[in-house]
Design goal:
With 107 residues, this protein is α+β, with helices and mostly antiparallel strands. Helix content is 68%, strand content 13%. It has a 3-stranded antiparallel β-sheet with strand order 1-3-2. β2 and β3 form a beta hairpin. The longest helix is centred in the C-terminal third of the chain and has 29 residues. The chain is globular, with a radius of gyration of 17 Å. The mean pLDDT is 90.
Amino acid sequence: MREDQAIEIAEIFRLLGDPTRLRIVVCCLNQPKNVAAIAAAVGASPSLASHHLRLLRAGRLVRADRHGRQVFYAAADAHVRSIVNDMIDHATETEGVAHHHAADEVA
């Protein structure tokens, strides 16, 4: 792996490491949404959601499409959807393993 690739990948994980930004990306995975809908879904103000969306756009994790006066945000591509969905699956799998091990320790 080249140094520039390592830096770019680390930046992607840094962006997704913020819980609000991660929830915003998850919110945009299946269909484009406007800022108001994203803000409501993640429990953030529209201005905070907009700030995070700017960072996520710069990191190429979401894309913006203008329809008339409104801008709709969606996951940038299939790679972003795959990364996030794989991490959700991994976290869900880990929860089951952690609960299984905890039950073993009690027994």
